[in-house]
Amino acid sequence: MIKQPSNHNKVINLILIYSLLLMFLIVISLFSITYKIEGLTFETVIRNDDPLLFYTIWNIRVPRLLLAIVLGAALATAGCLLQVITLNSLSDPEVIGINQGASCFAVLSILLFSGNQNSFAILIGAFVGASIVSGILFILSYYNANDYSRLLLGGVAISAFMGAFTTSFILFYETQLSEVLYWMAGKLSGAEWADNKIAWILNIPSITIAIFFANNINLLAQGEEIASGLGLKIIRTRQILGLLIIIMTGSSVAVAGPIGFIGLIVPHMVKRIVGSNHKVVLPMSALLGASLLAASDFAAQWVFSPVEIPVGIITAFLGVPFFLYLLRKRGGDFR
Amino acid sequence: MKKLPFAYIVTILVFLILFTAFMSLKVGAVDISFSKMIEPNSLSIKYRMPRMIIAFLVGINMAIAGAILQSITKNPLASPDIVGVSSGSGLGAIIVLLVFPTMSGMITLFAFLGAIISVIIVISLSYQKGEIRPLRLVLTGVAVSSGFTAIITFLIVKYALNSSQALIWLKGSLYARSWQHIELLWPWTLAGLVIIILNYRYLNILQLSDESLIGIGMQVNRTRLLMLATSVGLAASAVSIAGTIGFVGLVVPPLSKLLVGNDSKYYLPVSGLIGALLVMIADLAGRVVHPPLEIPAGIITAILGAPYFVYLLIARK
Q1: Predicted ipTM?
Q2: For the domain that residue A139 is a member of, what is the CATH number?
Q3: Can the keyword Membrane be found in this entry's annotation (chain A) (predicted)?
Q4: Does the pTM of the predicted model rise above 0.90?
């Protein structure tokens, strides 16, 4: 059932795809680091001759890019896992409400602990929110064992519910409105090394663990009956994957606000290219997610220059038509 | 569950509505004594009465629009919010509020147009192979709504100055609504009610399969279209006046069916009354909970409605 790439052609193809994606990522990275900086030479990047340039590169551009890369990878992986445990190819942390839950509680902690400085409080808030929504969804799925589209609808309702709370919190603290609003649209501007530290420490191990579980994920994707028939501990596996999703989504929301639809788009594109073996799909999703978010962030910075728009808006503009396309293509079948 | 007598329920609801109306006039940031309430030009008559009436009308509109949508799509999850009325009208209103702030008289018109356009988009995108599958309708609505929300967020970020007003509008508030808004709203409610009183029987018949409907000689598509237009008219007029007051159209019809059964003769009026009561209570609560700050009524309805919706999802195996 799980196909190993047995012949040379397949391996070569895979290597080719990986290197193409990697090249794409590198090109995007170089662009977003160097775009519109005057007087940039290779030496100024390394040596601290021109303090302003040095600062721009190493304290503004590079941390922002690295954050986009790690969050893109994490969100794409989270979306991939979510689509497996919900057995629904339309799932995404944004659609299903995890992002809204996380941002609801993150906004609460921003407002209570007056905390753009206090990133730890935001992080805890985001984790609490993501866990609460995931818990509710877990209970919902328990009651609707065979109907995963219901789960999606439940997620939609939960996200409206959380959104209502978020707005009322904001209205209570109207003075901080614009910074909260900007954060809520999903943003990467002003990324610092501290954000990066949190994001990399939490997300890289999570992605690695997810890849280690690829075999079990493949089984789970076959449906519960087959998976349990083949001896998989379903509840345990789903719990672990759920925990990974909470960590990845929660930490992304905490450092960058809710960024939607990366988790929806990327796994589909990857599966279209390399099939459905998660041993390949997961790492490639991470790579493609990183490139996509880095590219979206580049667009968010420069398309409407000098106004910079939140990257979440760009991903939503990409994701919504994609979602509609998937819906139409699938006809009545939503698995 | 044994169905309660229809007349009994209607009496209770009317009594509750009257009580809520009285409380709406009396309490608020300033409590008004009974004798002052009936003076002409008092605070109650001038500011609270129009709000209360609008809450009443909006509740009726949203609940009946939801009931109609749910029966023509045969889907208990359809509602005006979900087919895109709310996000479309939100976008229309935000465009006026933020981009053309000088034309603020046009908010209602733009919100109305936005609602109609977005419903047309959602319906036509979910129409495939001659039918509209309920689940696809819902998911398309969700997707289109998130697209519109992204545009709204973009506008809010770009024009950060006026955004708190926009945000309140988006969450459905009845703040500063006046008699002039009632003038705009009541004809729609009346027209919708007349159409639905003349045609309520079709809602029962439409529950049959399409083959049987054609078999008994009904023009299915024309009837559906008429019903859909009525529903959209009711919902769009309501949101264009009061903003996106969510979940009323979603949760009230199933609740009233639970109370009086599946005959549209009974559940339509009960839906209208419960909807009116719900929005009136939400508006009252929003004013009273934390004065002088107001919580938009739409937030209260969402906080009440969403858990009930999740319960419906769980309860309906």
Answers
A1: 0.76
A2: 1.10.3470.10
A3: yes
A4: no
